Amino acid sequence: MGLKTVIAELPLTSSGLTLTTSVCKKITSQLIGAMGKQEDVSVQLEALDILSDMLGRLSGALVGFHSSLLSSLLPQLTSSRMAVRKRSILALGHLVPCCSPALFSQLTGHLLTELAKGPPTSMTRTYIQCLATISRQGGHRVGEHLEKLIPMVVKFTSVEDDELREYCFQAFEAFIRRCPKEMSPHVATVTKLCLKFMTFDPNYNYDDDEEEQEDSMDIEDGLDEESDDEYSDDDDMSWKVRRSSIKCLDALISTRRDLLLSFYSSVCPALLARFKEREENVRADVFAAFSTLLKQTRVGSSHHGHVVTTSDSEPSKEEEPAVTMLKKQVPVIVKVLHRQLKEKSIKSRQGCFCLLTELAHTVLGALEQHIPALIPGIVFSLTDKSTSSTMRIDALTFFHVLLLSHPPQAFQPHMQVLLPPVVACVEDSFYKITSEALLVAQQLVRVMRPQGQTGGFDPKPFVKEVFSVTLKRLKATDIDQEVKERAITCMGHMVCHLGDHLRAELQGVLAIFLERLKNEITRLTAVRTITLISASSLKIDLSSILPEALSVLGSFLRKNQRALKLGTLACLNALVTHHAASIKPAALEPVLSELPALVDESDMHVSQVSVTLMTCMAKACPSSLAKISSSVLPGVFRLVHSPLLQGGVLTAIVDFLQALVLSKTSNLGYSQLLKSLTDPFHSSQADAAVIHRQSYHSVARCVAALSSACPKETPGTVAGLMKEVKSPGSPESARVLALLCLGEVGRTGSLGGSKEVQGVILEAISSTNEEVKTAASCALGSMAVGSLNDYLPFLLKEISSQPRRQYLLLHSLKEVISACPASSLSPHVESIWTLLFQNCECQEEGTRNLVAECLGKLTFVNASQLLPRLKQQLKAGSPLARSTVVTAIKFTIVDHPAPIDSLLKDCIGDFLKTLQDGDINVRRVALVMFNSAAHNKPSLIRGLLATVLPHLYKETQIRKDLIREVEMGPFKHTVDDGLDVRKAAFECMYTLLDSCLEGLDVLQFLDHVEEGLKDHYDIRMLTFLMLARLASLCPAAVLQRLDRLIEPLKATCTTKVKAGSVKQEFEKQEELRRSAMRAVAALLAVPEVERSPSMADFANQIRTNADMASIYQSIQGVEGEGLGPAESMDMS
């Protein structure tokens, strides 16, 4: 016992490792001797125990003893004592992760030889159990022996011995989890065996009529205990066979998502049939296996969040086939579980609720037609006196998911039955039950009267019942924090949805909300609740709390708590929008004084919400805003001129400036606002150089917005802008801005087809200044969007007749195609299409890319006609034309659902055939297009992976025929013409990891990653990222290839730059080493990586090398700490 304690306490840190290794080596010989003492079993058992502990912690340090340990342990497997055999198996399990491949083969060979002899059943059990253990512990190593092992194990399942069969299925489970790829040829055999033995119950007859069973439930309830005794006696071990076969099926489902559809055909019905399993523990495993099937289905389905749909609503066009098959099984699932939910077994009911919760998450709205069948089970679990707290919480959790994922109308007819048990749970003494029940009550309030619904259901009979229990919890101060918050939120929903039924009680509730608003612990929840009530369609009267609430809310804007700040701004927004009439100007003072400080580029989201609030004020209470316009506008203008401004913040500022100029309360009118916006662009050239390009576009948008709000001012503004463009004395920044402003004003259609403006723009496009030319092309496109018929023919004519300006004019055309609605573009499609194909073979790649983008975006106008025409162009003789067409397809693939998707899915395979094109550039753009599809719309290419991947992998290989030497003076320089294609291929591989992992053979994928680790700098950087991602996504496969992956990583981490190299070379090598070390850090985080001797050696090398240790620690962001999991590795 003392020795055992000493072993357990020996240190594994780098400082104490030497001592630990030394101690273990000294006592191993004695332990081996003690194992051989057959006459004293207690000594044997203790020696085996200590040996297991040692091997479990320090197997790598005892490599020298592995052979002798194996020789000593194998004879113990034939011991007459079962305890000795079991502990020997345990010790062998700890030995295999770090033993050599030869030793592992020796052990496996020994087990196979012994099994082939046909030993007694008790010995066969031991050997099969040992096989299962070494498979679990040795991982992928067992893969190469499966061809011999599987037939042997299959043979023993036919032996009439329940325990032996259990061990056989445990072995199958270990093989499946550890070597899923190598098990592929045997999946059908194992599945067939599982399906056969999951029903193996020779002592019981299940053929009783189900309906009869259900009717006589009350009688049978009293006999449950007796019947359990009758069929669960010690002689009947068949339940172990059923349980192990079901667990084996669970392993199959969880590791082979690629076989999901076949599982729905074969495994799903079989599992459903076993829901009637009589043994509680086995039934729990049946539910667990079915839940795994649902989880695997959910992995591939694309919905996110809670979306309430009705059962007869249109199904998603891209619904996974597995989801469709699952939907057909829902009535059967509910029918079987309906009966289980009324049983006394708590474990069974918990399994039912977990399974139903998973089902509700997997197929939203799937249970709508079956809610009447589920309600008795929910109510029973909430009201049954013998039900445990955990059971109640599980029932409430499922009920909450059900309410969120199904329409309110499905529950309204059952409110009388559903509400009382939930109310009782709100009053429960256990805070967790109360907390969950409040969440359910909140959803039931929404069910009583959904927002926007009038009539149909009268909530009045139920309001008082919910209100009184919620109020009791709301008033309590000596309760759990979570209950406090949920009581506030639940009451908030009551006021929001049913406030008109509360009348006299309403003001008291609002006063409590005000108190909770002042409390630091509950203030954020109170803020969100007041926001909810403010926006209620019932127009709740908040005048009694508004002045004080506004004062408190104003103080929150000073707090350094971002969530509170954002919540407060949203609350103020709702109050100003819906309750402006009740707000006195003086009450807003505490808020107004805080707003200027919030408009700052350091937090763009807070700025956006603050500006949106000021826009509401400008519309609802303009006099209040007038007081702070002078202090807030400088911040707004700083934002407009910020390089970070874009998207939602810019839109918010545009709306604000329009509201401000229309409110006519600011002491800054149209001309002053215009001057403040444009002044920085009229400074000297030195100042203008620091203005970011984004600022030009932001200011142009704001100028156009002001012009749109004040149409009378537009002619004067346009005249001033044209004068600016034409004036030779104007600084470049002012001319660029004036052109962009003209474009944005023209986008609204305010300019018409003015010949004067056209002349000014054309002259600017011919300018010698690049910035002015680019701005002019952008302006021309924007103006054409506003007046298509006036500008488009002119633009097309210019593209045809002005080859020198063509690139800029194509930019204008791209803007037109991107921004104009399809209906406006339709009449012009043919002329644009013809023009673009006239330029698709241009020698300039930049021009071809522009043509391709225009073609791709133009295809959206009439996809059914234009997509086949693009496909037709693939037959063009010129590689340049083919590359333009393939690039055009890239621009038809967008990251949101589009009508073109179904058409693309039918023909994208034809475009992907260009991966086999003879021209290297066509193959490169085909890879870029494939990458775009994998990233933005993976459903387009998932079904084509089997045919595409071989061509993709082929492009990752270095081709010597594409490497050439170029002489540059006295030096020779190597040029790799295949590098860009390889980079494109590796980029595709990286994208596939996130979007199509289930369609990849990960081991084959790793073969190419391994080659990439030795390639060019750019490719190595990519493969290091891939390796880190794979370590997280597919740890088992990475462990299988670990020894081969470590070598190139080690080579990169230990490479030194040649003396005399330039600074760039040093920086490049340093970045490579850091990236490689990030991959190493990801590998060290993989579970069970400590079992790899080569990884342990490398981790030790990093620890002892100051340079590498420094890089590792800087990556981890922790100075002076060890190597995480590697710290506990065996560093012999």
UniProtKB/TrEMBL annotation:
Is Transcription regulation among the key words of this record?
A: no
**UniProt-listed GO biological process terms:** SCF complex assembly
> Which superkingdom is the protein from?
Eukaryota
This chain's source organism reads Sparus aurata
What protein does this entry describe?
Answer: TATA-binding protein interacting (TIP20) domain-containing protein
Start and end residues of each TATA-binding protein interacting (TIP20) domain = 940-1102
Question: What residues form the membrane-spanning segments?
Answer: none
Q: Where is this region: Disordered?
A: 206-236
